[in-house]
Amino acid sequence: MEGSQSPLINFDNPESTYSNNTGNVQFYVNGIRGLAGGVQGLKKRGEGIRGWPGGIEGLKKRGHGNRSWIKIDTIGDSKILELDKATIMRHCSLPARDLRLLDPLFIYPSTILGREKAIVVSLEQIRCIITAEEVILMNSLDRCVLQYNSELCKRLDQANKDQSDDLPFEFRALELALELTCISLEAQVKELELEIYPVLDELATSINTLNLERVRRLKGHLLALTQRVQKVRDEIEQLMDDDGDMAEMYLTEKKQRSACFPSSDLGSLTNSSGDEKVVSKSAPISPVGSISGSQNLQRALSTVNSSRTGSLISSSYSENIDQLEMLLEAYFVVIDHTLSKLLSLKEYIDDTEDFINIKLGNVQNHLIKFELLLTAATFVATMFASVTAVFGMNFAASVFENPSTFSWVLIICGLVCGFLYFAFLIYCRRKRIFPL
Description:
Oligomer: single chain
Radius of gyration: 42 Å
Strand order of the largest sheet: 2-1-6-5-4-3
Order of helices and strands: HHEEHHEEEEHHHHHHHHHH
Largest sheet: 6 strands, antiparallel
Strand content: 5-15%
């Protein structure tokens, strides 16, 4: 087969060098062909990868496709929309890494992020984007999602009827997400308490494999639930400790202030021809110098104006974050109480484990004591058996002439062995090896 293959590259080298290079190139090309064939086979077999109907290609299309979202506006009307990730990114001015937190294909801990135009909320099953005008909620058949949708619409409708504007729209949506999350975690903790306390009490009275397996499974659930509650608590505490993050969540106020204070008062100057003439009058006579001077003036004025506007807005936010801080503090107390329940439950499990270890240690000590007594008794019995074995040998002695002599030998040997056994017990008692 090697002789029938034609050379791929022609070199002006000697024959030996030519044959070696040809073999190397052919080996390299064959390796590439084999790799390409393997990739094609993998793509063909990729239809069953992880249950995705289209394999890798289907997974890529699913990642960039539309998903079902629930849109809730400020008046309490909700509707289901099919939106892709790019549309949501443009609409809410969010990066892709923030939307990744809401993706059901990924598992992320609970997170609350304040952005320029939105609040990204990922709390247990409630994953949504809150803006100053609407809530974009990940559509799901989960009970928490359905309850959040119905309860938020009900509260917004009631607030519009009562004309109560004590909280902005974004804080109402955030408060409901925190409330439902705390209620869900509290219910799970109560359910775990009702299940784990009887099992621990039963294990304390009867130590067997079935009870140990049940406690091990419940302890795993307890650790997982503790991590989830701890993450929610840490997230709320982190927001409370950072005034800048809380200031970013005032979306309604930022929207109003951005309408009052444009980002650059110089935009109208650069877009109108009359204003450009005014700037050019104060510029140098040289055309090149006038262009560069106007650009520098525009940059300087825009920088000063944006910094002044930003400082005014940030100072106003820092003065008015008490409302959000009180809201977060209320739910921080609730989630901290839930976490304290889990910690006390974990301490109860640890105490039960310590009690079981002590109980098993006590049983082990009794077994060691019994083994020691049995070993001592075996040693004494062996001594008595050795004496009887000596006298049971077939040799001539004057002892065997009197039959009662052998009986006295047995009685004396038994008394000596009994004395040795009781002496061993007294020695163990004095050394406090085990109490008698």
